[in-house]
Amino acid sequence: MPEAMRVAVVGGGYAGMAAAVELAARGITVTVFEAARQLGGRARRVEHRGTALDNGLHILIGAYHETLRLIRLVNPAHQSALLRSPLEWNIHGEFHFSAPRLPAPLHLLGGLLRASGLSFAERIAAARFLAAQRLNGFTLERDISVERLLEQHGQSEKLCRVLWRPLCVAALNTPPAVASAQVFLNVLRESLNAARAGSDLILARVDLSALFPEPAAAYVRRNGGEVLTGRRVTAIDPVENGFMVEADGQRQTFSHVICALPPHQVNAFLIGITALSELAAAIERLRYQPIHSVWLQYPESIALPSPMLGFSRGLIHWVFDREKLCGQRGLIGAVISAEGAHQDLAQDELGARAHLELRQRLGRLPAPLWQRVIAEKRATFSCTVGLKRPPQATPLRNFYLAGDYTASDYPATLEAAMRSGIRCAELVAGSRHPRRV
Length: 437
Ligand SMILES: Cc1cc2nc3c(=O)[nH]c(=O)nc-3n(C[C@H](O)[C@H](O)[C@H](O)COP(=O)(O)OP(=O)(O)OC[C@H]3O[C@@H](n4cnc5c(N)ncnc54)[C@H](O)[C@@H]3O)c2cc1C
Hints:
This protein is α+β, with helices and mostly antiparallel strands. The chain is 35% helix and 24% strand. The protein has 15 helices and 20 strands. A hairpin with a 7-residue loop joins β16 and β17. The structure holds flavin-adenine dinucleotide. Residues 10-16, 33-36, 41-43, 55-56, 58-59, 232-233, 260-262, 265, 291, 293, 376, 379-380, 403-404, 412-414, 417 line the site of flavin-adenine dinucleotide.
C-alpha cells in the first residue's frame, strides 16, 4: 500500500531528484535531504560575480531517454531549455564530421564519407570498426581496454586522436589505456546504432540546476513531497519500523531509504551496517577521475564559430560558447576531462594555459576580464576494464542505492544517475512488505 510508505531520499543530485519525481508521480510520500543549499550535486549552478556558471559543462545525447523524459515531465520550459542538433564532431582545424538527416545507420555512413580531415582509408577503417561491432551486437566476450580494442581493429593514430579518444574521454571520463571497451561499446550501441535521434547532441540553454533539479523539486512539492536543502544527513540507522534518518540534530523515521549520495560519501553510512559490509568494500575499491572546467569571461564581442568546438594535442578538450547557449556574451567555458599533467597546475596557471591555447587556435584574443577554474577531483568513478558496479537493491530490505556509480550500461553520466533513481523508485513501489511508520 503506497499510503503506508514514507520514503527518505538522501542526496538531491540528478539521481536523488529522479527518484523523488518518480515516487511523487506514484503518490508515494517522499522527503529529499540535500546537504547543499543548491540542488544538482555534480551538475549544479555555481554563481560567480553575478553570473550563473555550471560546475562543469555537460553534454547530453538523444539516447538519454530517461533524462529527457523526466526533464519534459517537470520542466514546463523544456523546449527552450535544450539545444538539440544532429551529431557534429568538430575538432578545430583537424576533423569535421556532421551527420546528414538520413535514417540510421546511413547518417553515420554519409557523415563519414563526407568527413574532412581523414584519408579515405581512415574513413573506411572507422566504418568497418562500427560494422564489426554491429555484427557482434556491441558485445565483447571479455572486457578489454578501449585502446586495445582500437588496436585490434586497426584504427590509425589520427582516427584515435580526433575521433575515438575524445569520444571515449567525453563519455567515460577515463583514458582509453584503462577505459572499459565494453562500456564504450554500450555508449556506441545506444547512441550510434539506434535511431538517428539517439546520436543527437543536446546542450543545456539554462544552468544545470534550473534544467532539472529545481523544477523537479517544484514537481515533488506540488505532489505532496518535501525537498529540504541545506540539510546534511548525519546518520541512517535501521530501526524496528524502518530507518531513522538524522539531519541537523533532528530524527525522523521512514519506511524506506534511497541513498543517492556520491560514492565516496556513501560508505560513511554503510560501514556500520553488517548486511552492507560487502557492498561497502566494493564501493571502497572504486577509483576516481577529475574534470576541470575553466570559465573565461572575455569582452562581449568575443564569440566562437559554433556552440561547441573540440581541440586535440593540448590541455583543453572542448570549448563552449555560453552566448550561443545561455545568452551570456563573451563567456567561454573550457573542459579538461580525466586525469593528466594539468592536475599539477595551480588554478591560475590552468586558467592562463587555457587562454593561451584558445589564442593559439582561434587567433587574436584579448586577455579575459576574469577567470574561474572549477576542479571536480572526483567528477566520476574511473570506468575501468571489468569493473563491477553495485546494484540499486541492497541486502538490507527497503534500503536502496541510487547514483551514477550503481549498475548501468551507461558510464557515470546524467543518464546513469537518472535511471538509477527511477529504478530505486520502482523497487520501492514494488516492495512487498512496507513497514508502517
Ligand atoms: C565537471 C563534470 C562534468 C560532467 N560532464 C558530464 C557530461 O557532459 N554528460 C553527462 O551525462 N554527465 C557528466 N558528468 C557526470 C554527471 O554530472 C554525474 O554523473 C551526475 O551528476 C551524478 O549524479 P548523482 O545524483 O549520482 O550524484 P551527485 O550529483 O554527486 O549527487 C549527490 C548529492 O548528495 C548530496 N550529499 C552529499 N552528502 C550528503 C549528506 N550527508 N546529506 C545530504 N545530502 C548529501 C550532494 O551535495 C549531492 O547533491 C559530469 C560531471 C562533472 C563533475
